[in-house]
Amino acid sequence: MKWPNLIIVLCAAALSAEQSPDPLATLSLEQLLALDVTSVGKKPERLEHAAAAVFVITQEDIRRSGATSIPEALRLAPGLQVARVNGRSWAITARGFNGVFSTKLLVLIDGRSVFSPLYAGVWWDQDVMLDDIDRIEVIRGPAAAIWGANAINGVINIITRKATDTVGNLLTVTAGNEERNITRFRHGATFGQTGAYRVYGQYSHRFLPSPVPQFGDTYWGTLQGGFRLRFEPRENQKLLFMGDISQGTGFEFEHDSYPFFLPSSVQRLSNHRNSGSVLGRWEIRHKPGSSTSLQGYFDEVNRESNGVDLDVDILDAELQHRLPISPRHELTFSTGYRAIFDRTVGTETARFLPPERNYGIAQFSVVDGISLAKDRLNLTAGARFEHNTFSGWTVQPTIRAQWTIHRSHSAWAALSRALRAPSRLETGFERLYPDSGFGFRTSPSFRPEELIAYEAGYRAKLRKNLTLDLAVFRNRYEHLRSSELDSVDFSSGSPVAWFLLDNLVQARARGGEVSLAWNATSNWRLSGSYTGLWIRHTLHSGSTDVLWLATARSSPVHQWQTQSSLQLARSLHWNSNLYYYGNSRYGQRLHFPPTELPTRIQIDTRLAYRREATEWSIGVRNLTGNRTGFFVEPGPAPEPGRRAFYVRATWWF
Amino acid sequence: MIPSGTTRLSLPSRRWAGLLFSFAWCLPVQALPHDEDRVKAAVILQLARFVEWPPVAIAAAPTLNICLAGKSTWFEALAQASRGQTVNGKPVQVLPVKTHVDAEACHVLVLGSSLKESVRLQFEDLPALTVSDEPRFASQGGMVQIIVEGGRVGFELSPSAARRKGIRFSSKLIRLAKIVEDSD
């Protein structure tokens, strides 16, 4: 038989085989699982197996916890230090150095950085539609080789759900004594073969206690809307568009003094915020494991607070390419540019210099991942090369290894260098506290803060229903921000001591996080974690810094949390969370600054009844009503405490 | 194209391998689902043989009903693969479903994407084996999640989610699966 004929005969045989029952149907389950398949999907990266300290908060976790804002939801992650300052301000960090502007934690919402280049920190007053969050990935420790500067103590990735997962309508209404009203609505639908979209709107109206009790509540109200749209123009391509617009208004109280331990007057601030952003992403899969994605976004934020007006526009573009060299070896390249334009209007006592400035960050990064010993040993090495206007070229490398010891035991270790880029405030700002005779100035020579981190971790499935996750670290910080006495100015009558921001503080931090999750029964899940953190600061000789005192006390040394999730009946669910924040070692030893920082316990509990597509819930946050707290840079900010009640109804239709 | 697995089993000789590549020429004649989809479909059918439903749900049913909800690339492959199959002596019937009212008689409920959220929540109350290949399905209340890892199809099971509906997995399934305990 000649070859072409043979092919025709074999083709016919192959096709007739298609008509009869699938030949695969004759294989056993073991045989099926051993088949090599040609996958069209992206290589699924299981974050839980990464060579880093990672925790994932799911949509279900958020709903069960009764959280009404992102910061509340973040309390669920082990190893994060979360403190509320007032109605719109939060101090959140991982592994220490907490503050209203925690300079060492990078936060992204759907791939868009919300870390302020003006202040170096995150304004937590921006909302995300909580019901549309798919998951929050919390990475503790440096991840700058992938995420760039400022991912120094950790990264928080807030990822919203795919539009194909949010088809239908949702309405949720919350009412309570603190959160008077939060109403959220979403509509989602599909179009064509592959397209889906959603639009949402939300309104919130919050009265939260002030850190200065005699001044009563602070207020923050927001109105926000947005959309997500995705479709696949071709089988191997995905297009994604999203946009959000929001407006916030409120008032709070601020100590008009510096340093924080001096007697101070309090001023009322009225705050306004307008923001908007649009993002587009195009993902192309070339062949299994190989893909390219191109993303661009524009983000605009305007803030106004007692005469200080800040306007920041950001344009960002990034190209990423994954290139498999072999099934066990993969390279990922990324390059991008971010342009930042700010316009500020200051007052006589607080102003940016110059008031308007344009600056940029250019980056290129490469990450090489390789699997050895039958996928049991995974090595990753990568580096990010970044250029920014304030500090020039920088390199942030990392090397990581993950070893699967046994099917249910794995260990990892990592060595990384990460930087915290100078912000606009640290390179051109002037602030005067005329009443207390202090002033702050900055100089353009401010350097990036540097971290060298040694990390290791261990994950194990101790029993069928018991898992353990352990991470330990040793961090060496150099060139931390300090304030140095520069000059004393007598020209305006009363003397003013001017301080200059410099980089004369070093610190050593060590600690770890351990968490356990136990499915006691099929209806009862218990989890708990412990975080220990010890930080030691060292000042360069000649430094007159006092800022370190605030940062040293900003994070608890011991932190415990437990969560219980119990299905009482088919439709009835009871959730309780307990958080314990232990005292700071420095607070005990120094008795300075002279403010009590008692140990703090918070208990949240929630009962929910869900029948088909309606859920009713009732909850109490901070059951004990403790009013205690943390020190957060730059001022005394005992976390306001009050028992908060709420009821909530959710309808899916 | 004949799936690579079968060819490997039936033809040990390397000489024939080159010839088999010529099967690629047959492709334009009939567009077939991806290999991955067909293997996933076959896995579901095999897996159902090692699942124990509460007697009240299965005893009186003349057929084993596999219901498909939402959209997914492998639904077509599953419908094809189920033709003429039996599971535990019952002929397999594949039904597309839209709401929980249609789905009351389902034994296996395969969930795709683009499913209305309210419908998905109502499905959760049904005593059916829920299956999906959507990410994190088994850790968020689903029972069986089909996964592809290292170029092979596998599955994750959540025995606790199944137990709440009176569904049990045989020890063989537990052995072959990755066990996930959901966050319930």
Number of helices of chain B: 8
How large is the count of helical segments of chain A? 8
Name of the CATH first level of chain A: Mainly Beta
Proportion in β-strands of chain A? over 45%
Give an overview in words:
- With 653 residues, chain A is mainly beta.
- Chain A has a 22-stranded antiparallel barrel.
- The longest helix of chain A has 17 residues, at 3-19.
- Chain A is globular, with a radius of gyration of 27 Å.
- Chain B has a single domain (34-179), classed as Rossmann fold, CATH 3.40.50.
- The longest helix of chain B is centred in the first third of the chain and has 14 residues, at 35-48.
- By secondary structure, chain B is of the alpha/beta class.
- The model of chain B is unreliable at 1-33 (pLDDT under 50).
- Chain B has eight helices and ten strands.
- Chains A and B meet through helix 1, helix 2, helix 3 and strand 10 of A and helix 1, helix 3, helix 6, strand 7 and strand 8 of B.
Describe, in short, the structure shown.
Chain A is mainly β and 653 residues long. Chain A has eight helices and 34 strands. In chain A, the strands form four sheets. Chain A has a 22-stranded antiparallel beta barrel. Chain A has a five-stranded mixed β-sheet with strand order 1-8-9-4-5.
List descriptors.
heterodimer; A: 653 residues; mainly beta; Maltoporin, Chain A; five-stranded mixed β-sheet; disordered N terminus; B: 184 residues; alpha/beta; eight-stranded mixed β-sheet; two-stranded antiparallel sheet
